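Table S2 (text version). Query chain:
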Amino acid sequence: MKAVTFSEYGGPEVLQVADVDEPHPRAAQVRIAVCAAGVNPIDWKARSGMMREVMPLQFPVIDGREAAGVVDEVGPDATGVEAGDEVFGFAVGGGAAEYAVLDDYARKPSGLSWEEAAALPVAVETSVRVFTVLGGVGEGQTLLVNGAAGGVGAAAVQLARARGARVIGTASEGNHDFLRSLGAEPTTYGDGLVERVRALAPEGVDLAFDTAGKGAVPDLITLTGDAARVATIADFGAAALGVKVTGGGDFRAAEALGEAASLFEAGRLQAPVAQTFTFAQAGDAHRVSEEGHVRGKLVLVPA
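Corresponding structure-token output:
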């Protein structure tokens, strides 16, 4: 089968479409014919070697961690799913391929496009996992999301709003209307953040979620008044400040997939896709992701 692969650490140019062996599901896994695969910052961080100390790779590597498609093989312990079902979820061994094996998955709502479905797993799972790490996000609370216009940030805004929380989100000014459409109160990031947020929420901020890094964590601690009320997925050095740092290796909030599907069907969740690329354009997708400032998610499709 064809897949987006790389056989050494390096820039986006190391990505290529190559022939690889087809995978097959084990235990409760399923195999899908891939219709779309999501692109995430973790993908280019792994490809570049930035994370080789904590996440060494065995080459060749198939790119991608999330995918959506049609089930064509069912593992021996999988229940409630059969060939022909449309699902989205987490790929085992790479999602940017003609076929991918999923270990955690949910049924794709009929109104959700393949590209939108592939954009959801990492974003919604990360958000729900962070909410859990923070002790829960809910009614009567104010959550500050730093980097609210990106894939994870946009999901966090909507999931927090669905739980009844008030959300303040940072983004460039050009993304403020987008944040309002998701239910967040926007402000800009950078110098003066503490003053701007306090003007919006004089009563204070209960919790803060940093999706972007870039030095914002000290301000988030100031705004919440307690480092333990701040979580980050982008600034691993912030652990020294007492902030809760979480990555995908901690645990997986797989229930987020079903929750996202239900919220979409209820008209309470969008899955914004910023741009779609073919597998052959995977390097371009990584370049765009590395540049940052993506509104929503980047997605790869087989052709």
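Notes on Table S2: The chain has two domains: 2-120+271-301, 124-245. The chain has a mean pLDDT of 96.
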